[in-house]
2-phosphoglycerate kinase (Methanothermobacter tenebrarum), 306 residues
Amino acid sequence: MIMVQGEVSGKKYTEPFSKGVLARSLTRAEMDPNKAYTFASKIEAYLKKKKIDLITIDELVEIVFDKLKEEDKEIAEKYMLWRRIREHKEPLIILIGGASGVGTSSIAFEVANRLGIRNMISTDMIREVMRKIVSRDLLPSLYESSYTAYQSLRIPPPPELDEVLIGFRDHVDTVSVGVEAVIERALKEGISIVIEGVHIVPGFIREDLVNKENVAMFVLTVPDENIHKGRFYSRCRQTWARRPLKRYISYFWAIRRIHKYFEAQARKYNVPVIENIDVVTTIDSIIKSLTKTTVKGGKEVAEEIG
Ligand SMILES: Nc1ncnc2c1ncn2[C@@H]1O[C@H](COP(=O)(O)OP(=O)(O)OP(=O)(O)O)[C@@H](O)[C@H]1O
Ligand SMILES: O=C(O)[C@@H](CO)OP(=O)(O)O
């Protein structure tokens, strides 16, 4: 039997080589699942041929990387980049924001899954907990959606200001307190987490937290209005999703204003804006950005591949 030796927090452990485990890490680099399993079997055959019965993870990764380069350079590069990020010593806090319906929860799920991050929370859930603590009378906007918060403003804003955005800012400002608490706890405990939702807005979360090297924020957009609207239809068609389509559509005009505000805030605070048109391209952009900001190595991998 081939044993693989790894290390967690300075402690060594060994476990049997598993084609399934290797194949899973290859699918994260976007290799087709069937191809990944066949490739993992090839690696196993190679190790057997070389009569290797104990191998460290680093040695195994080198072999996988070399063989991958021969098969598919792009997948080889992705495989290595994902690994570099996963090996990052500090916990990773990934914040994904965007107007309602642009796909923050779908993308957050993919990113967490591929990076092996086990913690993910939506800001809607944080908001829901906060609603149990603070009364509607005290903070009426907390009880609204991001795009209806303007209706709860106690004092109407002057007509020259956009009331939708005033309401949105008020709503986000409150939920940001809860978001900050989650970030602080994750940093304190040393756990990686992806936090996503409409309340992740550049400029609203404390600078000392977002400026940390291991905290990365992204804003997702869908520039084409019709594609954005179509996302609500596709989401509400799913039987498990109990979300009122009519409500989103009738407030779509307000959601688009918030969408524009997200773009402006992202530009102002230098937060990467990623057009979420195609899932694979969105994930690729996030990963490239993460390697630039949180781990050195993206360039090295590209050079190694040539
Ligand atoms: N890149 C994409 N291509 C096609 N469909 C997508 C893409 N990203 C998300 N979707 C789909 O769009 C719909 C909305 O996505 P999702 O629920 O993730 O949005 P959200 O930003 O989390 O919205 P909300 O803030 O309202 O919860 C879903 O049906 C999802 O499957
Ligand atoms: O506030 C919002 O924009 C959305 C985000 O998911 O929440 P809900 O429509 O459930 O109020």
Residues 163-189 form the longest helix (27 residues). The beta strands are 3-8, 11-16, 54-56, 93-97, 120-122, 193-197, 215-221, 273-275.
